[in-house]
Amino acid sequence: MQVVEHELTVPWEAVLVEPARRSGAGVVLLTGSSGRVDRRRARVLAEQGLLVLAVRYFGGPGQPAGICEVPLEGFVAAVDLLRERGARRIGLVGNSKGAEAALLTAVHEPRVDAVVAISPSALAWANLGPGLDGQDRPYRSGWTWQGKPLPFVPIDDSWFAEEREPGPVAVRGGYELSERTFADRLAAAAIPAERAAADLLLIAGGDDEMWPSLRYAEQLAARRREAGRPVRLVTRADAGHQLVLPGEEPRPASPVFRYGGSDRADALLGEAAWEPLLALLGAG
C-alpha cells in the first residue's frame, strides 16, 4: 500500500505516515533509548492501513537531552493529534524505553485503546542522560505526570564502573544488580499495568541482554490477569532485545551494546507477533 510521510516540528519532531487506505486506527510509535524517529517501522505499520505518528520524545528542541523527567503529557498530545486526524482507535507501540513510556501513558490516559510493549520493563527507571538542566546526577525519574516525577528505581553505577574486555557490553546485569540494591524501591516503581484500560500485547525475547524483558513481561501479564484485564504475551526463548517485524531488515550490530538473540530468532519472534499486533491495533 502506498503511504505519504508528513514532517512535523511542533510540538515535537515527528513524522506522520498516512496510508492510502486507512483502517480508522492510529498508532503512536515510540522508540527506545536511541532517541530516533523510527521511520522504517512507521512505514511498515502504515502499509497495513494504520495512521502512524512516530515521535521524538527527547533530544529535540525544547526537550531534555536524555530520558529525564519526560512529561507523559507529550504522548497524550500525540493521541490528541491522531484523534484530530480521524483515528477512532488509538494504539501506542513502544520498544524498550518506549514500551516503558507507552505503558505508563496508558495507565494515566484512559483514551488509549491498545498498547504493544516490545522488550518492556515492568518498572519505571531512573533517567538515562541529562535533563533540561544539563545534569544527569543525582538520579531522577525518567518520567513525570502533571508536573510530578513518577517513582523510579535508581541505577547502581558500581556495575558499570567494573573493568571489562573491549567491545559491545550486555547491560542486563546492571539492571538486575540495581533491582537488588534498591529492592525497597521496586514496589513503588512497579508499572501498574492492571490499571490501564487499554488492551495489552507484550512481546519479549528470553535472550534479551539489555534487560530481563521476558521476566518483566511475565510480571506485567500476571498483574493484568489477576485484575481480569485482557493481555497477551508472545515470546521466544532465543530472541533478543531487537524485534524484527515482517517487512523490516535486522538492524546492524551495535558497537556499544549486546542485544542478544540473532537475526533469525528476532525475525521469527516478529512473525509470531505480527498477526496479534495487527489485530490489536485495528489494522485493515
TrEMBL record:
GO terms for biological process: acyl-CoA metabolic process; fatty acid metabolic process. GO terms for molecular function: fatty acyl-CoA hydrolase activity. InterPro entries: AB_hydrolase_fold, BAAT_C. Gene3D superfamilies: alpha/beta hydrolase. Residues 71-279 form the BAAT/Acyl-CoA thioester hydrolase C-terminal domain. PANTHER family: ACYL-COENZYME A THIOESTERASE 1-LIKE, ACYL-COENZYME A THIOESTERASE-RELATED. This is BAAT/Acyl-CoA thioester hydrolase C-terminal domain-containing protein. It comes from Kitasatospora viridis.
